[in-house]
Amino acid sequence: MSLLFLLNKRDLALAEAEAKAAVHGWGWWDAPERQSEGIVLFPRARAAPRSLALTRRVVRVLAQGDAKDAQDILASVPWARHLKGRRYRVTLAREGSSTLSEKDVARIVWDARGEAAVDLAHPEATVDVVLTPTRAFAGIRTWEEEERFEDRRAHLWKAPHPSAAHPAIARALVNLSCARRIHDPFCGAGGFLIEAGLSGRLASGGDIEPEMVARARANCAAFGLRPQALVCDLPFGKNTRDVALSPLLEAFLLRAHASSARLVIGVPSPLRETCGWRVRAHFPTYVHAKMTRHFYVLDRGPRVA
């Protein structure tokens, strides 16, 4: 099955990595696929993913080719066979200067729909056509992002704190771990725990500050299971205690190395010492003019299923 991921363009590098993790699992950094023009195509994906943060939709590709041949590509699809009499709608995602409109696309599908009927309000299937300046894709949508990440921003929590990562970024970083159980040893007010729990994982956490533990408990349930991976964001900025982060980071990396095979971590500056961890990926992420956060995906040995 060939799947096309239409990415959220807020952070394409991280969005690409999250999509690859969803399809390939742990070891995703070695996967050959690369995003181009805001999409990633996986020619041999085995299943449609769930709980992504930085992908807008996933499409099972039925036909593809050069953008200049878009109408012929659409007309080549046996839509009646794929729609199977279901109620459907048609959407067009277009980048560049293509003159093909959504009405043109809908007309081509209509002519080959068989017994299927159009239903814009409550469709049972969505026909997606994606046009880039160079490529055209046609298929059936298998998943779309419907989560309200903006409604889960930290200032809206029951026990808010300004240092928490944006929920979509937190979810994406959790997804990069490819783990079913998550532990955050610097959990703060619980941002990573919330996103891990909402995506169906078991999550636990701790913090040096009792007040932050109380906030985390107020914001999400404690799961308390041994983790497959550690996912965390080191303290930073004016809202944290005045501590030297280098000794704290080194001590944590050494201790984490003995307790977990995988680590996804955010730090205020590039890692100088990994303490035995292998760097699998590095994502510098702009925060504001005076700060860039650095997120790393690390492991300590052979791949873990």
Task: Describe the model.
- It contains eight helices and twelve strands.
- The chain is an alpha/beta fold.
- The chain folds into two domains: 3-144, VC0802-like (2-Layer Sandwich); 149-299, Vaccinia Virus protein VP39 (Rossmann fold, 3-Layer(aba) Sandwich), CATH 3.40.50.150.
- The chain has a six-stranded mixed sheet. The protein has a six-stranded mixed sheet with strand order 8-7-9-10-12-11, covered by helices on one side.
- Strand 5 (125-131) and strand 6 form a beta hairpin.
- The two termini are 22 Å apart.
- The mean pLDDT is 88.
How would you briefly describe this protein structure?
Helix content is 25%, strand content 28%. The protein has 305 residues and is α/β, with parallel strands linked by helices.
Describe the structure using short key phrases.
Rossmann fold; 305 residues; single chain; six-stranded mixed beta sheet; VC0802-like; 25% helix
What's the story with the biggest beta sheet?
Answer: 6 strands, mixed
- Beta-strand residue percentage: 25-35%
Give start-end ranges of low-pLDDT stretches: none
CATH topology of the largest domain: Rossmann fold
Radius of gyration: 22 Å
What's the overall average pLDDT, rounded?
88
Question: Count of DSSP E strands?
Answer: 12
Helix and strand sequence: EHEEHHEHEEHEHEHEHEEE
Number of helical elements: 8
Coarse morphology: elongated
Class computed from helices, strands and strand pairing: alpha/beta
User: What oligomeric state best describes the polypeptide chains here?
Assistant: single chain
| Widest β-sheet, arrangement of strands | 2-1-3-6-5-4
